[in-house]
Amino acid sequence: MSRKGKVLVAMSGGIDSTVTALMLHHEGYEVVGITMKTWDYASSGGSTKETGCCNLDSFNDARAAAVQHGFPHFILDIREEFGGFVVENFVEEYLAGRTPNPCVMCNTHIKWRALLKRANALECDFIATGHYANVLQSDNGRYTISKGLDETKDQSYVLWGLDQELLSRTIMPLGKYRKTEIRQMAHDMGYPELAKKSESYEICFVPDNDYRGFLKRKIDGLEEQVAGGWFVDKAGKKLGQHKGYPFYTIGQRKGLDIALGKPAYVTAIDPQTNTVVLGDETDLEQNDMMVGKINWMKYDGITEGMEAITKIRYKDRGSVSNLYSADGGVKVRFYENVKSIAPGQSAVFYEEDQVIGGGIIQRGSLL
Fold first, then answer.
1. Active-site residue, selected from the candidate residues 54, 103, 106, 124
2. What are residue 81's phi and psi, to 5 degrees?
3. Is residue 157 situated within a structural domain?
4. Residue 131 burial (10 A CB sphere; 0-12, 13-18, 19+)
5. Residue 106 bears catalytic tag
6. Do 66 and 121 sit in the same domain of this protein?
7. Does any domain span residue 224?
8. Do residues 182 and 252 share a domain?
9. Structure confidence by residue, pLDDT tens digits, 54-99
């Protein structure tokens, strides 16, 4: 038995998870590798070949690294769990006129739970992933996530949904490194091909990056069901017909196929009337929003009016705000207007680099 304990490492076959496994192995942990198959791209009817974390080459790369370094490796099929929750949620959210974040849903409800279940079965003390973030224990005893050292790769935003049990068992060794350092480590460990391997930023079950096409393939007759809807201005005046409300997102400018003589942006979506509201860029600005389905990390709640940096999307730098309890969720009031608040996306609250908590944006424009 290793003096550091036994750890189940999620290995996708990519550079980050491979370096994670080998780093922990070299540090003296008893490592067990596991690769999760979440999705068969062919089942979605896409036109391009399977890519990303769910292709055979990735499975083989993960297994080869484990075999070479003498630790066990398993493949875990969670397609049914993943499709039954993450994919269905993705479809349902777009049909409700919202913009989902499937990576958050997967981490929160599927991936970590699947890992912990297998870790317990294999008598592992910890689970580990190749995310660029850190797990910390606060002075109050609670666990939280902090931003990774490499701001360009930080993934703390997509991890806000992990509860205290999951965090207490999680190791994320890459949070203290920059991506350039990880590439060098891969090279030094004898994996120069991994150091050069390109990264995928696509949704794993939409590898052609065409979510509209995915929705059409997933829902037979969707185009006919939502055809004939109208673009309208904020006063309700009809501006022209659109292709169906699920095919648009808040803040969208390109691909509207309508000429108004000036730039137009999607500012609201109403699935009940199949209307998409267009406006100027300034119409996207709001100074408050309502957030629900809250998960608290650093604290078990908030003090009324507490200040936080709130991020409303993955690449958002964050904006200074105050947090208030309201309707079982959190009302967020920003010091300055923010653009393109999209219901369905995640709002994550930070105190410096540490995650206070997060939730799902319900609506903006509270005033």
1. 106
2. -60, -45
3. no
4. buried
5. yes
6. yes
7. yes
8. no
9. 566 778 888 999 999 999 999 999 988 888 899 999 999 999 999 9
Containing structural domain, residue 61: 6-130+172-195
Looking at 279, 295, 322, which one is the last position of a domain?
279
Q: For the chain, what is the radius of gyration of the CA atoms?
A: 22
- Is 53 one of the catalytic residues? no
Round to whole Å and give the CA distance between 20 and 185: 10
176 and 47 assigned to the same domain: yes
Catalytic residue among 53, 54, 124, 204: 204
The two three-digit tokens of residue 28, written as one number: 């003296």
Given this model, what pLDDT does residue 229 score? Answer: 94
Strand ranges for the chain from DSSP E: 6-10, 30-37, 73-77, 126-128, 133-137, 143-147, 170-171, 230-232, 238-241, 265-270, 275-279, 285-296, 306-311, 319-326, 329-339, 346-351, 354-364
For 285-343, write each residue's pLDDT tens digit.
999 999 999 999 999 999 999 999 999 999 999 999 999 999 889 999 999 999 999 99
For tokens 């997933």, the residue is 218
In a shared domain, residues 58 and 188: yes
Provide the whole-model pTM.
Answer: 0.92
CATH classification at residue 27: 3.40.50.620
